[in-house]
């Protein structure tokens, strides 16, 4: 800092405090000289200067307030006063309003605290909702030019929003020119075993097209992307690894490039590492190029590929869609058996990932937006009460010539200060709320970790705070300054002066608070009932004492299907030998794990003429013991025999179907003994040998999917195991792991949990919603009860004269109680009526969240209303109490 | 301000400093004068407040000078004591003299 001149900021600050003009200039100059003098003798001259900013600045500020006339002669400027004068007038008066506000708020700390707190809650709700929305939905995807990225949905009447097959992808890729590139990745992860000196490890791998990364616009951090030629070489070719994997396994060594890793016994060269935040498909450790000739890429009907496209510049979604439609038509005509009646739809990639989250958040936002309204009504009530209590002061000022406009403006300034402080409080609350969300929110909310407060959130917070000022401040300000001055200044006349209008307005405020709270409480009540229903719904299978785990065989060690089977059978018998195990079943996909693979099926007697006659049904490969372990009863027929195997598409086999499938494919007839045709790579005949009860595969809130069960595939390298235990399932996990390992030491066991846990994680989202709405319902309930209390307390004070007379004349406590309670409860009744009307209108919003309960459910409405009345009653008690205990003599004295 | 108020101590000192400084009496200089001659450390705030008060009582007048370098180019406000100011000083001096009559022995130790 230049020693010869004082710190600029400090000088500017003093300058603000000094009266503009010559005074400012000369005093600043004097201070500058003093600074220079002092700089010679002291190192801390800047500190000294700052100290004097405070004293000199403060001094002049005070003097300006007190002695405006003083500077007239010296500054040569007109007297700054209340009268209009050119430029500087609004600011100067704003400053004086501000000063006045701070002083008067300091005198009523209780009011200030209450108002800031209530408003803070309201603004905090807005802030939190927006910040969540902002992060989860509004931020663009982390790819360059994300607006040009699209997702391809494979559509059909029966099965909307599916993925497409590799063959379809190739056709689209080669047949359209609307895209810069179209990339594909398989939807189902392939778990492989990575072996090496550091031991074996399960890694998540995905086959992807060579151009997937360039389509998304992200390039490997080091190394290179796949080359198009590599899409045919297959496994023993190349791989690209993720940053996390690189860090974990290779310590970020640059020598990883060109090194070889062993996946399932096959040496694979690492050619690239992706950047740290790249995570598509989610959870990938290793990407490898799609092998055109591999099984998973075959089959027109194997819709296992997610396709992402980057539109060319100046090509619209609609244009691209038109091109896709042409190709889709060709495909449908060329492959009617599998593709008739199908088409594709393009959506933006953002929509695909955040669409569902957005609609959920919008519903939540709609409900929570009621909270700031309640807060505003509450604060308006506070402001009105305050204006009334200052009526004498206001009346005097009016009488002395202050304009009403000026007074209203001053009151609004108070509102502004409270609003800004409320904004700060709201931000703090929102921040805490954000932290809580992070801890408890479902992982299904994408981007959870980055919900925070950024510039946009700050802006929204303070803008909404400022916007609230006229909402809660204007009416009280106008009403508060509306009075017949004479009457107020008369002795004793003040109490009734303006009471009528004020009371009505306050009553309106309370009624609106009650109405809004009722709406939020109703939403909460409905959600709670939904959750209870979900909990109580029978999923159709038992979850108590059932353990689930995933077992992955080291496939590179096995040469033939027989060897796989041998290990599985061995593992199974070892599991059964563990004490405490009652039943064991193997399946390729656990319940509550999503619908999973599907195939088209039809009754042999009614072969489909086109695609829409084929029913897409959920497929499960389930071993014997599966149904017993999950407690799924067989309605008819019997299970597979132990020796039955899936023979592939060339041999007819047996199938067990569930009731839902039976109803759809064999309506009105007995399916047992009939033939179901499965569309594999060619139609396969399956004899129906059993009918299983329906289960809710995807969770309590869903309907049973039409499902068919085939005998377990012992040639798979990965299966899920279900184990029914006698007692506590988790107690035997160690023994189970051990037993399984004994079948083959390189087996990896993972995802060990009880079915009960899997069930409750399914319910996480609805539970989360219920809790959030419940919290806000509680908050609004508290706010409105306080509002009720306030209005009644005021009412009692207002009518204390009349009530004490009644008491004195012995008309009884009952009369007074009736008066007060009657007033209170009638307000609540009005509020309830309005709230119910509002709820009916808004109820449709909630429908997608409700389960087992209608949006106009009378039981919930009744319970919530009752709760509201009870709470209101409690709020009425104190003022009633006070009314009863009014001492007539005291009241008269105070007159 | 019509009420006859007597000068405070600092006010007297400032007036005398202004008189001592003759043509060169402006804020910072007054401060220096008080410090060197009067051996008083006065804070800028107190000084400005006093000058304001004196002006308010019309005991000093001020005029603007020319901008000088070395003060950030800001002008100086030169002070002069008015006749009323001199009268007030005389009054203060007289009062001091009368009060200290007979106290020489104590006061001059």
Written description of the protein model:
The complex is a heterodimer of chains A (895) and B (109). Chain A has 28 helices and 22 strands. In chain A, helix 1 (8-17) runs parallel beside helix 3, helix 13 (370-389) packs parallel to helix 24 (764-798) and helix 15 packs antiparallel against helix 16. The two termini of chain A are 67 Å apart. The termini of chain B are far apart. A two-stranded antiparallel sheet of chain B has the order 1-2. The mean pLDDT of chain B is 87. In chain B, helix 1 crosses helix 2 (27-36), helix 1 packs across helix 3 and helix 2 crosses helix 3. Chain B is globular and about 50 Å long. Chain B is mostly helical and 109 residues long. Chain A binds chain B through residues 5, 22, 25-34, 36-37, 52, 55-56, 58-60, 63, 67, 70, 73-74, and chain B through 26-28, 31-32, 43-45, 48-49, 52, 55-56, 62, 64, 70-72, 74-77.
Features:
heterodimer; A: 895 residues; alpha+beta; six-stranded mixed beta barrel; six-stranded mixed β-barrel; 28 helices; 22 strands; 16% strand; B: 109 residues; mainly alpha; two-stranded antiparallel sheet; 5 helices; 52% helix; globular
Characterize this entry briefly:
With 895 residues, chain A is α+β, with helices and mostly antiparallel strands. Chain A is globular and about 105 Å long. The two termini of chain A are 67 Å apart.
Strand and helix layout:
The complex is a heterodimer of chains A (895) and B (109).
Chain A (H helix, E strand, L loop, with lengths): L7 H10 L4 H20 L3 H22 L3 H6 L13 H19 L1 H30 L10 E8 L9 H10 L3 E8 L3 E6 L5 E8 L3 H5 L5 E2 L14 E4 L1 H8 L9 E4 L2 E8 L12 E4 L15 E7 L5 H18 L1 H4 L2 E7 H20 L1 H20 L1 H9 L4 H37 L14 H26 L4 H5 L9 H38 L9 E7 L8 H17 L3 E7 L10 E6 L11 E8 L3 H5 L3 E4 L15 E6 H7 L9 E5 L3 E10 L14 E5 L6 E8 L7 H11 L4 E7 H8 L1 H35 L1 H9 L4 H34 L11 H27 L3 H7 L1
Parallel strand pairs in A: 4-9, 6-8, 15-20, 17-19
Antiparallel strand pairs in A: 1-10, 1-11, 2-10, 3-4, 3-7, 5-8, 6-9, 7-8, 12-21, 12-22, 13-21, 14-15, 14-18, 16-19, 17-20, 18-19
Helix pairs in contact in A: 1-3, 2-3, 5-15, 6-12, 6-13, 6-15, 6-16, 7-10, 13-16, 13-18, 13-24, 15-16, 18-24, 18-26, 18-27, 19-22, 24-26, 24-27, 25-28, 26-27
Chain B lengths: L8 H13 L5 H10 L7 H13 L3 E5 L12 E5 L1 H17 L4 H4 L2
Antiparallel strand pairs in B: 1-2
Helix pairs in contact in B: 1-2, 1-3, 2-3
């Amino acid at each position: 800092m230049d020693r010869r001149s004082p710190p600029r900021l400090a000088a500017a600050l003093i300058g603000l405090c000094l009266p503009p003009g010559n005074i400012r200039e000369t005093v600043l100059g004097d201070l500058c000289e003093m600074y220079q003098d002092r700089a010679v003798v002291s190192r801390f001259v800047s500190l000294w200067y700052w100290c004097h900013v405070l004293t000199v600045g403060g001094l002049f500020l005070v003097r300006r307030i007190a002695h405006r006339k003083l500077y007239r002669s010296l500054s040569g400027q007109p007297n700054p006063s209340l009268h209009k004068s050119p430029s500087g007038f609004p600011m100067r008066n704003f400053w004086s309003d501000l000063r006045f506000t701070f002083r008067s708020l300091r005198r009523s700390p209780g009011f200030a605290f209450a108002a800031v707190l209530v408003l803070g809650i309201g603004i905090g709700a807005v802030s939190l909702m927006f910040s969540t929305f902002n992060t989860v939905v509004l931020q663009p995807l982390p790819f360059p030019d994300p607006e040009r990225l699209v997702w391809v949905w494979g559509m059909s009447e029966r099965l909307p929003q599916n993925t497409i097959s590799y063959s379809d992808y190739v056709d689209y890729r080669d047949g359209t020119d609307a895209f810069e590139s179209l990339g594909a990745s398989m939807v189902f992860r392939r778990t492989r075993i990575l072996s090496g000196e550091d031991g074996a490890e399960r890694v998540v791998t995905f086959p992807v097209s060579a151009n997937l990364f360039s389509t998304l616009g992200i390039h490997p951090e080091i190394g290179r992307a796949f080359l198009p030629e590599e899409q045919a070489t297959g496994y023993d070719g190349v791989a690209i690894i993720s940053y996390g994997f690189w860090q974990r396994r290779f310590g970020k060594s640059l020598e990883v490039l060109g090194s070889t890793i062993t996946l399932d016994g096959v040496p694979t060269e690492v050619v690239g590492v992706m950047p740290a935040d790249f995570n598509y498909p989610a959870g990938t450790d290793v990407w490898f190029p799609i092998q055109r000739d591999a099984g998973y890429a075959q089959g027109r009907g194997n819709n296992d590929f997610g396709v992402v496209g980057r539109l060319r510049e100046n090509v619209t979604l609609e244009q691209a869609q038109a091109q896709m439609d042409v190709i889709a038509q060709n495909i449908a005509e060329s492959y009617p058996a599998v593709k008739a009646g199908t088409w594709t739809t393009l959506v933006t990639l953002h929509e695909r990932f955040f669409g569902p989250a957005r609609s959920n958040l919008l519903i939540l936002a709609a409900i929570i937006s009621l909270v700031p309204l309640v807060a505003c009504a509450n604060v308006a009530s506070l402001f009105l009460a305050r204006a009334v209590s200052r009526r004498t002061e206001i009346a005097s000022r009016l009488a002395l010539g202050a304009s009403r406009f000026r007074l209203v403006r001053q009151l609004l300034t108070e509102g502004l200060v409270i609003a800004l402080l409320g904004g700060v409080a709201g931000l703090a609350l929102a921040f805490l709320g954000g932290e809580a969300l992070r801890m408890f929110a479902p992982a299904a909310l994408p981007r959870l970790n980055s919900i925070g407060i950024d510039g946009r959130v700050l802006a929204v917070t303070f803008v909404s705070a400022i916007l609230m000022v006229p909402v809660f401040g204007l009416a009280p300000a106008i009403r508060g300054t509306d009075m017949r001055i004479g009457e107020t200044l008369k002795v004793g006349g003040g109490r009734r002066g303006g009471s009528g209008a004020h009371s009505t307005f306050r009553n309106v405020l309370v009624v609106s608070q009650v109405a809004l709270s009722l709406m939020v409480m109703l939403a909460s009540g409905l959600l709670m009932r939904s959750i209870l229903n979900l909990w109580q719904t029978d999923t159709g299978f038992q979850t108590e004492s059932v353990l689930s785990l995933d077992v992955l065989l080291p496939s590179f060690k096995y040469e033939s299907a027989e060897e796989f089977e041998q290990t599985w059978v061995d593992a199974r018998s070892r599991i059964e030998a563990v004490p405490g195990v009652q039943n064991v079943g193997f399946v390729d996909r656990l319940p509550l794990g999503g619908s999973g693979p599907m195939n088209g099926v039809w009754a042999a007697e009614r072969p489909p003429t086109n695609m829409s006659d084929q029913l897409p049904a959920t497929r499960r490969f389930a071993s014997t013991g599966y149904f017993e372990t999950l407690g799924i009863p067989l309605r008819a027929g019997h299970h597979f025999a132990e020796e039955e195997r899936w023979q592939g598409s060339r041999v007819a086999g047996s199938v067990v179907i569930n009731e839902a499938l039976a109803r759809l494919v064999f309506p009105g007839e007995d399916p047992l003994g009939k033939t179901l045709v499965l569309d594999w790579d060619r139609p396969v005949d399956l004899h129906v040998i059993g009918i299983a009860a329906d289960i809710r595969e995807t969770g309590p809130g869903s309907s049973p999917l039409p499902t068919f069960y085939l005998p377990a595939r012992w040639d798979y390298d990965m299966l899920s195991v279900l184990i029914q235990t006698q007692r506590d399932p988790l107690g035997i996990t160690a023994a189970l792991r051990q037993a399984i390992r004994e079948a083959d030491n390189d087996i990896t066991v993972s995802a060990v949990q009880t079915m009960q846990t899997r069930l409750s994680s399914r319910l996480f989202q609805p539970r989360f919603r219920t809790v959030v709405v419940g919290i806000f319902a509680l908050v609004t309930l508290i706010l409105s009860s306080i509002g009720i209390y306030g209005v009644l307390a005021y009412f009692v004070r207002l009518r204390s004269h009349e009530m004490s007379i009644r008491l004195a004349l012995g008309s009884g406590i009952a009369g007074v109680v009736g008066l007060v309670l009657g007033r209170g409860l009638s307000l609540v009744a009005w509020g309830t009526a309005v709230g119910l009307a509002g709820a009916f209108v808004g109820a449709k919003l909630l429908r997608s969240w409700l389960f087992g309960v209608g949006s106009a459910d009378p039981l919930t409405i009744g319970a919530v209303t009752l709760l509201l009345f009870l709470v209101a009653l409690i709020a009425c008690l104190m003022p009633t109490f006070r009314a009863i205990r009014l001492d007539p003599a005291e009241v008269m004295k105070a007159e | 301000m019509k009420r006859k108020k007597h000068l405070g101590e600092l006010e007297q000192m400032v007036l005398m400093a202004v008189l001592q400084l003759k043509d060169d009496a402006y804020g910072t200089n007054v401060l220096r004068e008080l410090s060197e001659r009067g051996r008083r450390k006065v804070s800028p705030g107190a000084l400005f407040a006093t000058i304001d008060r004196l002006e308010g009582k019309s005991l000093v007048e001020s005029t603007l000078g020319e901008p000088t370098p070395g003060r950030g180019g800001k002008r100086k406000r030169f002070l002069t004591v008015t006749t009323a100011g001199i009268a007030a000083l005389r009054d203060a001096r007289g009062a001091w003299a009368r009060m200290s009559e007979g106290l020489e022995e104590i006061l001059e130790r």
